[in-house]
Write a structure and sequence with these properties.
Phosphorylase Kinase, domain 1, binds magnesium ion, D-amino Acid Aminotransferase, Chain A, domain 1, globular, alpha+beta, five-stranded antiparallel beta sheet, binds adenosine-5'-triphosphate
Amino acid sequence: MSLRDGLARHLRSHFVDLDTDRLAHLGTHRRGKVRELFVGDDEIWMITTDRLSAFDVVLTSIPCKGAILNAIAVAAFEATADICPNHLLEVPHPNVMRVRRADPLPIEVVVRRYVTGSLWRDLEAGRAGVYEVPLPAGIRRDQRLDQPIITPSTKAEVGIHDEPISRRVILEQGMVEEAVLDRAFELALALFARGEALAAERGLILVDTKYEFGLVDGELIVIDEIHTADSSRYWEASEYEARFAAGESQKMLDKENIRQWLIGVGYQGEGTPPEIPDAVRLDLAETYARLHERLLGRPFVPPAEDVRESLYTVLGR
Ligand SMILES: Nc1ncnc2c1ncn2[C@@H]1O[C@H](COP(=O)(O)OP(=O)(O)OP(=O)(O)O)[C@@H](O)[C@H]1O
Ligand SMILES: [Mg+2]
């Protein structure tokens, strides 16, 4: 069966919801935009669903996205554990990570090597000053920066958009202690350098990415997901120069594809979200699966069984 056919089988049996009562023994249930969490005293069972959020709104589901993201995040945690401790403890199911429960910093640490996406949109709209990060003059869309920059954002409550913020304001508002923030930024840059190198080995560019950090017994660790297609942008390295020179969009292997589709139909996070056609959902599922194959060096194989049922089998009582 072709990859697309395998993914198409999950268009309707997409994994968007759980009967949380059946997993209540794992901990206190909390629903994120993409994940279902079961929170215990020291650990969390993080179940990644197929839900797709863009502009901070859950819009649809992408077949098999949960398992693909989980696999990419797990591989990235394993490939960076020597430079930064992370929360991963165990992978009991393709959609699940059992992790150490941390006290999350109230910010997201976004590292960027290229000026694109929301930073480019901010620059064009004259809003990029909020980060208080110097950018070279006369910059063009998708231009590479000599050094990666950090453009933090707040971590908003459900339903509120994450807001850009600067290091200075984070400290001024006492959101994070200075020593902790400096360490988080240092770790983020080290993780990013490793992510860039691993992507380059696969002919990809890690364009930008978002990290979340948390404290466990005073130790700063990286949490949530890293270097996935949801938290990062990836471009095709071999096509970058020509496309940039021609002023064309880059070949994207990430969620920006759907953001561009949404912007194309006039949606940017406000008002009623558009209906997303199955073909568009499948295209994105294929993009995610191809990224899995490129980064992990092995194809993603869509499961034969229903994801929910297998979750109850593995994690249920
Ligand atoms: N090790 C951890 N300890 C505590 N919290 C964590 C840990 N790892 C991830 N989280 C939190 O779990 C949630 C993951 O769920 P998900 O990705 O669905 O949420 P989100 O869409 O990013 O945000 P929200 O929770 O606001 O909907 C995030 O709020 C993240 O900060
Ligand atoms: Mg998240």
